[in-house]
Amino acid sequence: MARCFDALLGGKDHYAVDRAVVDAALEIAPGLVVATQDHREWLMRVVRYLAGTVGIDQFLDIGAGLPTGENTHEVAQRANPDAVVVYADHDPMVFSHGQALLVDNDHTHFALADLTEPEALLALPAVARNIDLSRPVAMLQGATLQHVADDRSPHRVLARYLDAFAPGSYVAISHLHSPADPAHAASAAQLEKLMLAELGTGWFRGRAEIEALFDGTEITEPGLVRPLDWWPDGPRLRARVPAQNLLLCGVGRKP
Fold it and tell me: Which segments does the entry list as coiled coil (predicted)?
């Protein structure tokens, strides 16, 4: 999945087989490139808000994906040079690229871990030595929980992380969305079928299911919205496309 995202963002760290999956997805939803760019820009705005406005100085970016322009640590440390960022991913290729990128950054670390095992992930040295769970932390789950099947309960997985975090912590979540509108729902169903066949995971969920991921938090304004609608930096410069309706995002605060 990380390599498919890389292909959608115009990167070079993917193979022909990944490109073939992306091309098939673009046949179904031609605006996926725009939607993926929206998602990346949303993540940058969230990190900038949490590091600068809120004052969070430790970040746990789970399912980090392959390095690209404006990574979490770059955005956070621009707002606060002392901010600590720990990336976690279960893809060895992502881990290898991440370690190479961060070799000269003392405030940024990488862990090879499975997001569905919160206790094990939080106990890893790269996490336990650098994230102080007695203080507020920001956790990013960008397009990750859509890869956790219902029988593994993404809601319970997320709740276990929140239980470990101090009050005042934040969680940012984005998730593939199956809209109520029949036309958009049809595209979501086709994309889900493709992802399950080619990648083995990738479930589109309804708004209520995605909202439930924020149980135990107070969702900040503007609520659960499309990435392009979460505190945009300025006026809309691109025409809207249907694929932008296939992802919802939000930020919750643990009281």
Answer: none
The reported pTM is 0.91
Structure tokens, 194: 């493709």
Digits of tens for pLDDT over the chain (255 positions)? Answer: 667 667 776 666 666 777 788 888 889 999 988 898 899 999 999 999 999 999 999 999 998 665 566 789 899 999 999 999 999 987 766 666 566 666 567 888 988 889 999 999 999 999 999 999 999 999 999 999 999 999 989 999 999 999 999 999 999 999 999 999 998 999 999 999 999 999 899 999 999 999 999 999 999 999 999 999 999 987 777 778 999 999 999 999 999
What is the dotted CATH code of the domain comprising 2-253?
Answer: 3.40.50.150
Element holding 60 (H helix, E strand): strand 58-62
Asked if residue 154 has a cis previous peptide bond (ω within 30° of 0), the answer is no
Q: Please compute Rg for the chain using Cα positions.
A: 17
Residue that the structure tokens 């440390």 belong to: 77
Domain ranges of the chain: 2-253
Tokens of 54: 């809120």
Tokens 């589109």 locate to: 204
**Whole-number Cα distances in Å, 68 to 88, 93, 106, 175, 227:** 15, 14, 19, 20, 18
49, two tokens: 């808000």
SS3 letters across 206-249: CHHHHHHCCCCCEECCCCCECHHHCCCCCCCCCCCCHHHHHEEE
Could you tell me where the DSSP H helices lie in the chain?
2-8, 16-28, 32-48, 72-79, 92-101, 118-123, 125-128, 154-164, 182-198, 207-212
